[in-house]
Amino acid sequence: MSKPRILVARAVFPETLARLEQHFEVEHNQADQVWSKQDLAARLRGKAGAFTTGTERIDAEVLAACPELKVCANMAVGYNNFDVPAMTARKVLATNTPDVLTETTADFGFALLMATARRVTESEHYLRAGKWTKWSYDMFAGAEVHGSTLGILGMGRIGQGIAKRGAHGFGMDVIYHNRSRLSPDLEAACKARYVSKEELLETADHLVLVLPYSAESHHTIGAAELAQMKPTATLVNIARGGIVDDGALAAALRDRRIAAAGLDVFEGEPKVHPDLLTVPNVVLTPHIASATVQTRRAMADLAADNLIGFLVNGRPLTPLNPEVLS
Ligand code: DGY
Asked: Strands 206-209 and 49-52: what pairing?
């Protein structure tokens, strides 16, 4: 019997490719080109499965061009690149990679918070530029992290990981806001207190965004919300670009309406709002929160397991629209 045909839409670990090739006839992209939507659709035509990352948009238009497609396995926990209702309507299974990246991403959220509050990259640029000629009492004085108030917007698995690091490691007072409140047990484990969005914005010394992107969460943080924050506060976004209005944030940072920001994700990435590149009080990283070798391998393995699980055994591990299976 011939093997099902799949597309691996971006470069992956050679071991992942070798494993997929045991089960499938694979068209790959080890040259790691970023295809246009038309090119992606053309390559997906005649394929039963796709191994995607957050950069491939699978929507009604792409699906209409690829009637043989049965499954798209995203190598990411976020799946705002998928139009899941359109996939469900066409009986195309969507999968993502939850859990395997939770702790690594929470580590990075904390790293970005620390770097932002303590002005790590700004001071390093100063040193590298040869500007450091003497020690002085207020040089790169930043914001206290231990014992301060940590606000978390979006209290899923990663948000809870950040809360635990803040509460247990840094003695922070943790407050959060989420669509639904955590159970008392989870709140106790995270030492976190549920507050309104207004109280979160007004009270947090450090506000970390970890909520999923959707039409509803678009520009959750814009000029009005930034104005509600303390002028001494820091903002960290490890969720998705588009949750923050980057133009409004750049203006707030320039005018010191908040103290600093740490951003791993950007609206329209890999493009970055030009005004963010001109303000010194922002730490910018290229969407690397889950990027450790072990975690990226675990994500690739889980995406491959989902393709094999579904197309070979009929049992995907982490389906997003399990109704397609019935
Ligand atoms: C995720 O898993 O959603 C990360 O942001 C990588 O895309």
From this structure: unpaired
